[in-house]
Structures are given as structure tokens and as C-alpha cells.
Write the C-alpha cells for this entry.
Amino acid sequence: MPNKNLKDFTLAELQRLAAKPFYGAILFDWLQNKAAENLEQISNLPKAWRTELKNNGYGIANLKLLKRTDDPDGTRKYLFALPDNCKIETVLLNDAGRHTLCISTQVGCKMACVFCATGRLKFKRNLSAGEIVDQVIQIEKIEKVKIQNLVYMGMGEPLDNYDNVLKSIRILNDKAGKNIGARHITISTCGVIPGIARLADEGLQVRLAVSLHAATDSLRAKLMPINKKYPLPDLMRALKAYQKKTGRRLTFEYILLRGVNDAREQARSLLKLLGGVSAHINLIEYNPHARAEFQPSAKKTLREFWWLAVDRGFETTIRYKRGQAASAACGQLSGES
Ligand code: SF4
């Protein structure tokens, strides 16, 4: 395993590292577009420079595919081993020829949301920028597809690994590489306020999705312990400031749990909370995982919730279960395939 993984570097950093900037551009192209697995493959770079890189601890680390699980609905889940043998999962969603990749940012997660399989895992470590980027490189190579949309919604809380997540976005957004448009990239957070404030100043056109799942502090704190640190009034203030600065619409994710957060009164509280915010509401059908203690709401309840939100003028969608059979659905990733 190299000390310094070249996939962790932006194009500009590789250009600075190289004796001549165009060597850096060749290296970036091989890493991003040709999925180079080792320096020996990069035959159009001088051997002397490749040897120098190696002698200085630089190299190419690769995720290793351990297993692919296919769901009948077309969703595919991939279990990857990292160079230190930690495991992560990545999910590919196929929609009428469009490919969306749901990527992981941490091994495990500190946030312990009670409905989430990842939240039951002990947090082990952050992924490096290169390990986040490599999920896209490997899937494009394995499946021979072009990823159009990227969602930072896999294992881990992206804003708890802020620097590496932002760097991975800059690498994946680079026109000389994967060239995934910022508007096609969504960061999903459970509500880490300092990260939201930093993101507002980045000047990036990415989408921000907030996992809300309850509209009162008492219930949200039970479902999502992060709410004790960053309660709803503070979170909403931070989100309004984010919106003022970026002018971008926010997405709010709300998983409907039977008898927990799906009553009409709770729908009304949610809509009141989101008053004055330019918001897209995404109502999510709950996917029970192996050790789940919750049940999904009835389809009728989901539709009623949807109708109340639409009636109040919110753009609202329902995300029905996908990848259920492969345990690839939202909140089901456990690295234990
Ligand atoms: S829902 Fe997201 S933030 Fe919460 S435990 Fe799961 S992975 Fe972590």
C-alpha cells in the first residue's frame, strides 16, 4: 500500500508535483479516465519520474471488489475492501439509462441514527478523497457506464469528513476527469451545522439534502442523536443562512415510520417548520434492515402526507423502496453483505 495515494490529488496538485505540468495532466488522465492501477501501466510518462515517485512513497491504491448484489429492480450494491481491509458499500441506481451512484464517505458512522443500519456500526475512519473518488472510477470500469449523478448518501456523514468530501467533489467535477457537474452532485447531511456554514462559502453549485425525519426536537432527538447537539431551531437558522448565501433550493428528506412520525399533526408541524424556505420535500418509504425496530408507513399514509405538502405549495416527491432485496436501500448499508 503506497504512503501517498495519487488518487487523493487534484489535477493542480499533480501538476505541481510533476517536473513538467503536462506530466501531471497525463497522470490525472490515466487515474481518472483510464482507471490506471499502477504506475507501470502509464507508459507515456518517463520511467525515471515514475521511479522517483515510487521512491518517494507515491503510488496508486485501488478499491477491491468483494461482492456485487443485484436487486430485481435493477439496483446494484457493491462491497469494496479498502487497502487496510476496512469495508464499504456503494450503490448504483439505474433509471432509464441514467446512472446514479450513491457513495460512502466513512467506514461506519458516529451519528447513530436509530433507523439506520450504518448507524449501528462502530465508526472506524474517514475515507480519503481518493477512496471516495475511486468508488466512481471502479464502478465505471466494472459496469462500463458513465455516472451522471452522484449522491453522497452511502455509509457515513459527509460533513463529518468535510475536507476529503470537498476535495473528492473538486476532483470528480474536473473537466479533465470524470466531469460530473456540480448540479448533479448531492450532499446529504443529518444536520452538521458547522459543515453547512462552510459549504455555503465554497461557491459550489452542489445540492444540499437534509435528513429531517421529525419536525419537533423531542422526537428528532430520539431518532437522530445529532439533534441534541444541533437542535431544530439552530439547524433551520443555519439552513436559511445557507439559502440566503447560495440562493439554492434545499431538499428535505423525511422517512415515514409507522406510528412514529407519520401522523397528520406531524405533517403539519413539518410544513410549518419549512415555511419561508425554498424546499423540495422527499418523502421516503422506510426500508427495514435486518435488526430494524420500525415499520414502514402504509402507502395510503405516504400519499396523504404527500398531498398535505403539495397542497401547501411544496414541491414534493415520494421515494418508494428500491434495492430492498439486495439490502442496498437508503439506511440499509452495513458493510456486512
Ligand atoms: S442516516 Fe446517515 S448520518 Fe445517520 S447513522 Fe446513517 S449514515 Fe450516519
